[in-house]
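Incident log, structure service

09:12 report received: a user says their structure output differs between two submissions of the same chain.
09:20 pulled the input from the user's history:
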Amino acid sequence: MLGWLIVLGVCVVLVIVGIIMCRYYYYPGEFVGIVGAVVGIFILIIVICVPIQQCKEIRAYEYQKQYIETHVPKNELEDVAITQSKIKLNQWLFEAKSSKLAFGIFSFYTDEIMGIEPIE
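09:34 re-ran on a clean worker, output below:
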């Protein structure tokens, strides 16, 4: 996540420089300014929105894990459904941890993901 905060700072600078170039320079500076501002705003939106979604997914995993671990299936069909949910949730956790390991500080997942245990 730290890497994305650095990217966020660079994007803010890019947007400011783009606005200044649009204001004070003519073509091709104006074109570069517009492109810089648009790219900066696009990356800003991604850097702000994606981590929020990742935190929601972590919370949803924790709530579902708590429910699955405390729920006692009443019949065989319910047991199969819970087993499928366990597989799906553990697969998501594995993919999230793999992303964190592969991308390091540029992963959108927080360090909290590495401490979460899979559902047994």
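09:41 both user submissions now match this output. Likely a transient worker issue. Closing.
09:42 reviewer note: The mean pLDDT is 82. Residues 52 and 108 are 9 Å apart (CA to CA).
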